[in-house]
Amino acid sequence: MRTSVKATIVTAAVIVVLLIIVLVFALTRPSAQAAPDPTAGPPPVQRPNSQVLDEGGKGAVTLVEFLDFECEACGAWYPVVEELRKTYAGKITYVVRYFPLPGHLNSTNAAVAAEAAAQQGRFEDMYRRLFATQPDWAEAKTSRADVFRGYATELGLDMAAYDKAVADPATITRVEQDLNDGQNLGVNSTPTFFLDGKRLELQKQNDLENAVASATKNKN
Q: How far is Cα 160 from Cα 27, in angstroms, rounded to an integer?
């Protein structure tokens, strides 16, 4: 009788262990993702929540830039784009989308800082500050999130709201949406420009101005 009871207890224990193993496996196993819909087509070059720095209005051409705030090439193109914005003010809608490259430790942190500033209507101020100070923090081997927070303080942002936005998972999700869209649009380097939905293949910096000039002329 004792042997029978012991056997029953051992069997029950084994069953419980097996159930725990199955449960742990089920909880830790990556969830299956739906297969992509081949009929869905590419994502939009610009989304309703994209950051628009210049709104040209009706008849304007739309220039979308996928950029990485830590990218040296983006820093080199920054003054070129700023000059274009002045030259073609009212004729172009300029849109910024995030595309943090994996080799840049602080590119995502910078994008999150810009998005947090955007939630207070100060995206352009942070956009300018990040590019103006790029040599000070780019290529760092540790997080510079504290430096970006310092910029937010200097800009006079509501720091409680800024910190909340930085910590909110929705903010990084917003950055990742741009990154995913870019990848699905074939973006693999920064900066990458789209003019009226068409990706530009630029060889020289004046190729961008020539493309914008041609597009705005054809709109008239």
A: 35
Provide the pLDDT for residue 59.
Answer: 87
CA pair distance 106, 46, nearest whole angstrom: 24
The beta strands (E) that lie in 16-162 are given as: 51-54, 61-67, 92-98
The sign of the CA dihedral 146, 125, 192, 183 is positive
Owner of token pair 């830590």: 70
**Pairwise CA distance, residues 43 & 47, whole Å:** 9
Structure-block tokens of residue 182: 């870019």
User: pTM, whole model, 2 decimals?
Assistant: 0.81
Q: What angle do CA 175, 177, 178 make, to 5 degrees?
A: 70
Contact 92/60 with Cβ under 8 angstroms?
A: yes
CA 106 remoteness from chain centre: 12
